[in-house]
Amino acid sequence: MIRPGRRDRGAERSLGPLESEVMNRLWAADEPLTVRQMVDSLTGRGLAYTTVMTVLDNLHRKGWAERDLAGRAYRYRPRVGREEHVSQVMADALSSAADQHAALARFVDAMSPDEAALLRAILHDREEPA
């Protein structure tokens, strides 16, 4: 499993608020985006081109985004999917709990019946045959 944000991969920790917003735009895009396209998609934020360029460069260095040179501009795309990111956030939260059993129990207690049924099905599929 690719785990951006893990120190053993040479990447920094989790995403900041602006990095998360930029990643959400990359995940939603149908194709790789240039810095200019990202700036245009973040209208209303009042962000400078250089700010967005720095964020995208940081995401690339952290292993969250890949980039290809297209003419004189880089085009950025996510390196991992949104679900992989959510999985990492959940794993990081669990690993930071002093009592993982209690943390998992509270997580399961907060699930809807449909979510609990889905979790049961996933766990059932992972069981090894006897």
UniProtKB/TrEMBL annotation:
Molecular-function GO terms, alphabetical: DNA binding
Source domain of life: Bacteria
Transmembrane regions listed in the UniProt entry: none
SUPFAM superfamilies, A to Z: Winged helix' DNA-binding domain
BP GO annotations: negative regulation of DNA-templated transcription
Keyword line: DNA-binding, Transcription, Transcription regulation
Matching Pfam families: Penicillinase_R
InterPro entries, alphabetized: BlaI_family, WH-like_DNA-bd_sf, WH_DNA-bd_sf
Entry's family note: Belongs to the BlaI transcriptional regulatory family.
Protein name: BlaI/MecI/CopY family transcriptional regulator
Lineage: Bacteria, Bacillati, Actinomycetota, Actinomycetes, Micromonosporales
